[in-house]
Amino acid sequence: MAGSENSAKNSDVIELLQDLNRQTQCIGTICAVSTALNSAGIISDKQVTCYPSFESKPGSANCTGNMVMVDGNIVTGKGPGAAIDFSLKLVYELGYPGISDELADKLLAVP
User: Fold this and answer.
1) Residue among 26, 31, 50, 63 flagged as catalytic
2) What digits encode the pLDDT tens for the residues 28-85?
3) Catalytic: 63?
4) Under 8 Å between Cβ of 18 and 40
5) What secondary structure does DSSP assign to 45-84, as a single string?
6) Most CB within 10 Å of its CB: which of 6, 46, 57, 94?
7) Judging by DSSP bridges, how do beta strands 74-77 and 68-71 pair with one another?
8) Domain boundary assignment for the chain
9) CA 13, CA 27: separation in Å to the nearest integer?
10) Which CATH superfamily hosts domain 2-107?
11) Is the pTM of this model over 0.85?
């Protein structure tokens, strides 16, 4: 958990997240790293998901508890068990739905 806490306190990470959000670029975080999105102030009134013990930390964001959540340009994953679905959703949201489907097929996963 130290990595997520350090990310949430790191000014370079916060500035990068804010810049990407201003440009409406796709931003993805998984597990407890969603707290960095809160520190960057970019998930107010967004629906996100994160590791259950961090659900109270994303501020005014709505933690859905879903394995993967997409709200606008923000893609979040609940935790390690969501890694494949999260990765496939990121590929899809980055503009490669065909590749996402192909990877899902090869991984025996549902996109």
Assistant:
1) 31
2) 999 989 889 999 999 988 999 999 988 876 566 789 999 999 999 999 999 999 999 9
3) no
4) yes
5) T-EE---GGGTTSSTTSEE---SEEEETTEEEE-SGGGHH
6) 46
7) antiparallel
8) 2-107
9) 12
10) Class I glutamine amidotransferase (GATase) domain (3.40.50.880)
11) yes
